[in-house]
Each structure stands twice: as C-alpha cells, then as structure tokens.
Specification:
The complex is a heterodimer of chains A (about 180) and B (about 325). Chain A contains three helices and nine strands, in the order E-H-E-H-E-E-E-H-E-E-E-E. Chain A is an alpha/beta fold. In chain B, the strands form three sheets. A five-stranded parallel beta sheet of chain B has the order 2-3-1-4-5, sandwiched between helices. By secondary structure, chain B is an alpha/beta fold. Helices cover about 50% and strands about 15% of the residues of chain B. Chain B has two domains: about 200 residues, Rossmann fold; about 110 residues, 3-Layer(aba) Sandwich (Endonuclease, Chain A). The chains are: A alpha/beta (about 180), B alpha/beta (about 325).
C-alpha cells in the first residue's frame, strides 16, 4: 500500500472562484425564496459533501424553512459483499405533505440520487425537487430532474466547496480541477 | 457547439474569408494545417502530402482512409468543447445532421479565380489554369469517394457567396450575420448547445471488450448497478450497422448494458480517447440508424471518476 501524493492546494487549477460561487449561491437563495414563499419547505442536505453548500445557501434565503440531513451508504469498489444501498442516517423530520428540496454538492451519474428520490417519494411529500451546486450532465446514467443548479461542468474531476478527494479539499472556498495522482 | 463550415472553390478567396470569420467570431479555425498538426500531436501522420491523391493511389488508399477516419473523429472531438470555423475537408457533410451548423460555400467565376490565383501565387495564366482545374478535380473526387456526394451541387449549403462582386471583408461579415440569424436562436431553443452534440462522440466497444462477460470494468459496473438497485441486462441486443451489397451484415454493435427502467443502453470503454477513435464511428452510425434508442457512453475518465467517488477509504 503506497501513500498517494496529493497536490498542494496552490497547485490546483481553479475552475470556479470564491466570488463566482458566492454570487451564484446568493442568486439561488433568492430564486428559491421566491419559489417557495408561503410553502412549508424542508431542505434536505445529503451528507457529507453538501454541508458547506447547504449552510451558505440557506443563509441567503429569507423565508422560513426546516433543515434536515440524510446519508446513504456508498458503493465500495471491489468489495466482495457489496450488498445494496441503504440509508445510514435517516431524516428526523416527517416530509409527508411538505415541499422538499434535496440539496447536493454535485449531481453526476445520478445513481445515488436516483435511489434517494425513489425512497423519498414513498413518503408522500407535496413535491420533491433537487438543487445542486455542480451539475455534470456528461456523466449522467440515471436521469434525475435538477430544478436548481449552480454550475454546469464538463466531464472533469473537481474538488473544493464540499467536494473531496479522499476526504481532502472539502474546506476550499473555490472549486478546482483535480488531476488524479 | 457553434459550427460554421466553409467550402470554397479554389481561388475564390474562401480561405481568407474563413480566417477572417474565425478571427471576428473568435471561433477556432480548423483547416488542413491545423488538422495535420493536431493529429501529428496524437502520433497520427498523414500518409501522403495530398490526401486527395492518396485516396486514388492503390498503395496509399487504405492508409488515407484510416487517416481520414481519425481526422473526422478529431474534428468531432474538437466541436464538443469549441466553436469552430471549418474550412474544407467535407465539413458540411460531417455536420449536416447538426442543425445549428451553418454551411457556406464560396464561389467565383473561373476567370476570376484564375486572376486571383495567378496574382496570389505569382503564376502565369497557363499554370494558374492548370492549378485551379487540378484543385477542383481533386476536391470533387474527395467528396465523391468519401461521401458519395456531388461537390458541385449547392443543395448541401445554407449560404452561397459569390465573391466576384464583393470584398473579402463583406463576405466574412455576411457569413457572421447569417450565422447569428441561422444558428443562435436555434441553439438557445434546443437548450445548452453542447449536449446534443456530445451524444455524437460516443465510443464503441473494443474488440477485446466485446462478447465475453466480463471485463473487470464491466463486472465492477454491474456490481455498482446492483448496489443502487438498478435493473440491468448484459448485452441483450445487437444492432446491425452495415450491410454489404448482398444484404449480409458486415458490422454490428452490442452495447454492454441495458438499464431496464431507464430504457438506456450503456457502453463502457476503458480505452484512452486516442484509441477509441475507430469505435466512435460505430456509435455515431448506431445513432443515425436507430435514433430512438438511447445510448450512453461511459469513457475511461468517466469510469475512473465513478470509482474514485465510490472508494472514499481506499488507498489505491
């Protein structure tokens, strides 16, 4: 087992600056506040990547809402008993009859989000929509309806603003392209 | 992305016009030189100085066809991320199914072209006539041999410009104006312009990937689908792509997976883009013949990202 070398932060190629991200989030906060005015809104953060985005997004909103988090198990490459996806941390709130907005840091293949949508639909929310900071359409396998998106990115691997490579780089305030070692 | 193709009669000024259009629109100019250079960077060398003549040369024809196939893939690849002005090389044919593209042909009377060529290259009239005739013949043959298309026919173009009575600068401006009218509203209407197009760049299976269940990557992918409870079938269907004159199938394609609930075929390729070129043609062909079938390619990069994302704890 060799230790993978991770490039230092100052060598990453910045794709989206802190300013761009902040401006986009402010805009999204405004739009969402307008669209959900007068509705009972539950914002659901999908752990762990979306935490940064969810916090900053909700700070830009000016309507009442509730926050909750959900987490699902992730697929482990080449594990013998992969099993099936399951919820590892469920919602604490009931979403029945509520307007639900799932908040993601990134939507690419749609595999895990597809599962989450199927699962949450069975709980009879009034409606169920998706908001993501980064959308990578080129990698989509399962179609998922993305209602609010920050940025469309091509098929590149990115880190920062909640997005990690082996748990690193999440706390960066910008988004950078990352060439895997 | 945005595409303007410019085909020109030799000596009509089309080359200069294309350069001007590219400069003014800041589109990437694709011509013989940039293609030769781009492919050389991928280690693909031109089999002969002139492809047009190599095509008819018994000894060079195969190599020329291979080169041209790589060239087409190269141009399609470029178009995914760039706005292009494509000079010659059958651009109007390559992008004839891409509605936002504007196809331009620049023409001028024979005598006018002779004048221009002799001045430009400092040739006597006799030599200029020979050169213009030779170029016309070669281009015409190139279109006929590769695409079975009569190059003199103007139906394949959206805009035909006669440069006899207009300046080069005016011609360039006209093309740009036409492009704005023709392509831009449609691009907006159709949504993000790249997406449609990206579909064209799908890759097809390698021979070694074909047929046997399973390649490591396929096995991994199947496990991942199972994990997310997505129903799939392995190579359930073969699509016929090409028939010979007697109706025998000479080319077929079986995408690796069919996702039942998504009604989607998925093809995995772990080849590097450089090697996946020959296979790209297969997927494009499939899209032409079976436009209602959804196919998605997961390329090497995409597959690696998929795995990276799904092994948070591993150490490689």
């Amino acid at each position: 087992m060799t230790e993978t070398k991770i490039p230092p932060v100052d060598q990453l190629k910045i794709i989206l600056t802190q300013e761009e991200i902040e401006a986009k989030i402010a805009e999204l906060g405004k739009t969402i506040s307008r669209d959900y005015a007068g509705k009972e809104l539950v914002m659901i953060g999908v752990l762990r990547g979306s935490a940064y985005f969810l916090v900053d997004l909700t700070r830009k909103m000016h309507i009442p809402f509730a926050i909750d988090f959900i987490s699902i198990s992730s697929y482990k490459e080449q594990s013998e008993a992969a099993g099936v996806v399951r919820i590892t941390k469920d919602l604490d709130l009931s979403i029945s009859g509520k307007h639900v907005l799932i908040v993601e840091d990134i939507v690419d293949t749609g595999l895990s989000l597809g599962y989450l949508l199927r699962n949450l639909k069975t709980r009879n929310p009034a409606d169920l929509k998706i908001c993501t900071l980064v959308n990578v359409e080129a990698r989509r396998i399962v179609e998922v309806p993305v209602e609010y998106k920050g940025f469309d990115l091509p098929n590149i691997f990115v880190v920062g603003y909640g997005l990690d490579y082996k748990e690193k780089y999440r706390n960066l305030q910008f988004i950078a392209e990352f060439d895997r070692p | 992305m945005g595409v303007i193709t410019i085909s020109r009669e030799f000596g009509s000024g089309g080359e200069t016009i294309a350069r001007l259009v590219a400069e003014k629109t800041r589109f990437l100019l694709v011509n013989k030189e940039t293609i030769t250079q781009g492919l050389a960077e991928h280690g693909i060398e031109k089999p002969a100085p002139r492809l047009e003549t190599a095509l008819s040369d018994e000894n060079l024809s195969d190599a020329a066809h291979r080169y041209i196939e790589a060239m087409h893939e190269y141009i399609y690849d470029l178009a995914i991320r760039n706005n292009l002005v494509i000079l010659g090389r059958g651009g109007s044919v390559l992008f004839r199914d891409y509605p936002p593209a504007l196809h331009v042909k620049v023409i001028a009377q024979f005598t006018q072209r002779i004048k221009r060529v002799s001045k430009l290259y400092d040739l006597n009239t006799e030599t200029a006539v020979k050169l213009v005739k030779e170029q016309d013949r070669d281009t015409s043959r190139y279109y006929r041999q590769l695409f079975d298309i009569n190059w003199a026919n103007l139906r394949g173009y959206d805009l035909v410009l006669n440069t006899e009575k207009m300046g080069i600068e005016d011609a360039a401006d006209m093309i740009i104006a036409a492009y704005r009218v023709h392509a831009e509203p449609r691009e907006l209407k159709d949504g993000p312009s790249g997406i449609d197009f990206e579909d064209r760049n799908f890759s097809a299976p390698t021979d070694e990937e074909n047929g046997h269940f399973m390649h490591n990557s396929e096995e991994e992918f199947a496990r991942m689908l199972d994990f997310y409870r997505i129903r799939w079938e392995y190579e359930p269907k073969t699509f016929m792509l090409e028939w010979d004159s007697e109706g025998n199938v000479v080319e077929a394609f079986s995408p690796d997976f069919y996702l039942v609930d998504q009604d989607l075929y998925v093809e995995l390729t772990t080849q590097k883009p450089k090697q996946a070129w020959r296979k790209n043609r297969k997927i494009r062909r499939m899209k032409e013949l079976y436009p209602d079938v959804n196919v998605r390619l997961i390329d090497k990069k995409g597959f690696e990202s998929l795995l990276i994302k799904h092994r948070p704890d591993s150490e490689d």
